Amino acid sequence: MQSLWLYLYFPSLQLDTLLEQMRGQGVEERAYVVVDQQANRVCQLNAFAYSAGIRLGMGLASAALLHRDLQVIAYQDDVTQGRLEDIANSLYLITSDICFFKPHGLLLRVHHMLGLYGGLKAYWQVLKNQLAEQHVHYHYATGYSPLAAEMLARVGKNCVSDDQSWLHKQVLNCVLEDCQLDNNVTNKLSRVGIKTVADLLAISLHDLAQRFDNNLATYIGRLTASLAHPMVFYHPPEYFSRYLELLYEIENTQFLLNPLQQLFRTLETFLRTRDLITHAVQLRFYQRDHPPLECQIGSQQGEYKMAVWLSLSRLKLESLQLNSPIYALNLSTNNTQVRSPERPDFFTGKQGTVSRLKLLSLLQAKLGEQALYQPRLVDDFRPELAVQAAKLAKQGNITMPLYALRPSFLLPQPCPLQKKVRLIHGPERLNTGWWDHHPVIRDYFIARTPQGQWWWVFKSPEQHWYLHGIFS
User: Fold this and answer.
1) Are 297 and 281 contacting, i.e. CB atoms less than 8 angstroms apart?
2) Whole-number Å distance between alpha carbons of 234 and 421
């Protein structure tokens, strides 16, 4: 099987990531550029900036003269690498062998996957559909070697083919400036009349090795696939953590929903790939001139879907108080478990649209985790003191083992029994409470009324009858 590689080149990955936060808010009508501060050169730009005459490699001063309202963003390598990892994690659903080619590309080993998809055309169609969900600009090309695929993608060939002879001709037509060679080497080759890759490959490696160092010979060997290219393939991380720099500082918490949606979409892909859910996510809001603000959002039943986490975040943000504007976000989770879908009984009737656990999650996000309580049994035989309110347990685990027959509805205070009933079960004597000066001596019975109701009644030592509870 002949080797075939596919290179994906993302020329404006940081800019695409930032503009995705404000999609639909008029960013298409503004000129944005990303500037490499060390070289003071434009390295990324959007279509509006290109229409204004700004080009890659242009100095910042020249670019600013072409557009008076130019929006300038400093290049950050960690944003680009984080976004590349998100894309690689998404593509891992389709293809297994992915390698990072810094600074802006992903290399995919294709020939091992063609048998699974039934050919290169079908494989590329599935891959293209997955890339469409990322909302990023990219160029692509196949090649018989990693360096050949990279070169054709960088020049914008946008071709997917397994014809080795055709791909070889495309590589030969490339100029030396398209190769990833040192500028000194390129200048030396140009002085002796070598302008294209075809001119370079026409010279024997022996002659090149005498006039240049071994790096050039190694590059040619890897370009022509006569030498193996060392690869370190991508393996998805075990835990999720993503950092997102905002396009501009945000003071209103409701404006954080757009960047949060981008982070939760990445989280959904991460969890869906591994068939996992999480019960809690941690959000960190980086504030200007203040320590980061941290909050946790929980889901009692566990979730992986972006829409659910976004709705919980919307409720949480309503009560969040900011000390200063937010310039970056971080989303992380390490509390994951294997997803087990709910399997309702076949004979279960129509249920509400919100389950009990989902309702608890909504209430916690809206009111806070300390606002919800659950009943808890305590070691006291007196019915009115046997149940107390306690903080809601983790994941809503409400367990109340009842070993005695007790009614579901207990009256706040026992009331005199006014109706004739028939005693069915009892007596159950309670003689307790002497230690706190509230003694109780009662004989409890389960009784039935003529209408078929089941009551919990008791008789006092004075032979007075009282109603204390009603069975459901």
Assistant:
1) yes
2) 75
Tokens of 287: 């504030």
The answer to whether residue 181 sits within a structural domain is: yes
Q: Report how far apart, in Å, the C-alpha atoms of 282 and of each of 334, 335, 383, 396, 406 are.
A: 9, 10, 41, 19, 42
Does residue 41 lie in a domain region?
Answer: no
Shared domain check, 209 and 251: no
Residue 131 lies in a domain: yes
172-227 confidence digits (pLDDT tens) = 999 988 888 888 888 888 888 888 999 888 888 777 777 777 888 888 888 988 88
Which among 291, 311, 338 is the end of a domain?
338
Q: Which residues sit opposite 432 in a β-bridge?
A: 440
- Give the domain extent around 91: 5-30+69-223
| Tens of pLDDT, residues 239-262 | 888 888 887 888 888 888 888 988
Summarised one tens digit per residue, pLDDT across range 154-173 is 999 999 999 999 999 999 99
DSSP string spanning 176-245?
GGGS---HHHHHHHHHTT--BHHHHHTS-HHHHHHHS-HHHHHHHHHHTTSSPPP--B----SSEEEEEE
Question: In angstroms, rounded to a whole number, what is the distance separating the alpha carbons of residues 182 and 202?
Answer: 20
